[in-house]
Amino acid sequence: MGEFIRLDAATGTSISAWHATPRQPARAGLVVLQEIFGVNAHIRGVADRLALPGYEVVAPALFDRVAPDTELGYGPEDLKRGIELKGQVPDDEALTYVAAAVDRLRARHGAAFPVGVVGFCWGGSLAYLAAAKLSIDAAVSYYGGQVPKYLDEGIKPVAPLLVHLGGRDGHIPAGPTADKLRVTAPGAEIYVHPQAGHGFNCEARPDYRPEEARYAMEVTLRFLDRRLSGPRRPPI
C-alpha cells in the first residue's frame, strides 16, 4: 500500500500524489497518470500493483490546484464533474505536475534513474505528450482521447512509446488512430484490443474487460522491463 505525499511543481504549485514503493530496491520509477476521475481507488490500485515488480510509483493529483482531494466514481454526475475539472487544467499545466513527479523520483535515486510514464484516458493523452516534451525513458498510453488531435498537430514522441487502443472504443477511432501513429510515431508499439471499449482496464467501469486488461498489462510490463533497464536516455 502506498501513501499520499506532496509534490512541488516548478510553477510553485503544491499538489498531492500517491506514492507506492516496492519492497525491494527500486529498479526504476513510474509516474501513473489519472483519468478524469482523480487519483481514486482505481488509480491508487494501479500504482500499488505496479510497485510489486519493483517500480517506485508516483501518481500526481492533477486536479489539486482547482479541486483538492478530488476522487470521483464513474456515474454520469462523476463524468460531468470530471470533464468540468479537466477543462480547468490545461495540458501544459498538467505536464508541470508530471515533470514534478519525475523530478521527485530522480531526486530520490539520482539523475541516471530511469523513469517511465503510464497514463489512462486523460492520463493516456498526457503520457503521449510527456513522451514528446519531457525527459522520460518510456511512456505507455492507454486509450488517450486526445492522441488523435496531437497526431493531427504533428506532435511526435521522442521517448519509446506503447499505445493501447480499444477496437470498440466509441471515443477513439482505433484503426485510423493506429494508422496515424505508424506515420507520426513509426517507432511506437501499438496494440488494438478488438473486443475492448473505452476504459477497458478499469474494474469499476462498464467497459471493463478482464482478459484484455490482463493481457495489456502483461504487454506493458514487458515493454517497461525492456525500456527501463539500464541507464536513462539522454535528456531532451
UniProtKB/TrEMBL annotation:
Residues 15-226 form the Dienelactone hydrolase domain. This is Dienelactone hydrolase domain-containing protein. GO terms for molecular function: hydrolase activity. SUPFAM superfamilies: alpha/beta-Hydrolases. It comes from the Bacteria. It comes from Tistrella mobilis. Gene3D superfamilies: alpha/beta hydrolase.
